[in-house]
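Work Package 4 report. The design task specified in the project plan requires that, given a folded chain encoded as structure tokens, an amino acid be chosen for each position. We show below one input record used in the internal validation round.
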């Protein structure tokens, strides 16, 4: 899936392969992944997200501190000018908190991404199996 938003003189952001894993019954959190491509000559930032599927969506990173890997909430993700930023397992990800219902394989989760310059971008996260990864689409 590819979502494209362009605002004259501002920014152009593409969202590629937004996906999340299915959650076990009773789970209250889930993680979301995607690739953000900035086609603009100006850097942009993903500063937030929202969905009706969860009470809130947070931006998180896994950070290594010596031998320990910790998850931390961050304020935003920088998407470089004419560059990309990838949210992937073990790294940056969206954290869906207080899920309203479990994510099931095959679900499509509508999410609004909020960028500093590009504004709001609406995408659907495709839910894979519990251990799944997305199939690459071109």
């Amino acid at each position: 899936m590819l979502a494209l938003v362009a605002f004259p003189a501002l920014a152009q952001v593409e969202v590629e392969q937004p996906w999340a894993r299915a959650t076990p019954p009773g789970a209250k959190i889930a993680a979301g992944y995607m690739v953000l491509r900035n086609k603009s000559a100006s850097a942009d930032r993903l500063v937030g997200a929202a969905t009706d599927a969860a009470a809130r969506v947070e931006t998180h990173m896994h950070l290594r501190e010596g031998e320990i890997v910790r998850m931390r909430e961050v304020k935003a993700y920088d998407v470089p000018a004419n560059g990309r930023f990838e949210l992937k397992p073990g790294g940056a990800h969206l954290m869906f908190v207080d899920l309203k219902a479990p994510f099931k394989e095959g679900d499509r989760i509508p999410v609004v991404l909020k960028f500093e310059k590009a504004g709001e971008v609406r995408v659907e996260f495709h839910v894979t199996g519990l251990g799944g990864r997305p199939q690459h689409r071109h």
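Residues 4-11 have pLDDT under 50 and may be disordered. Validation will be extended to a larger panel in the next phase.
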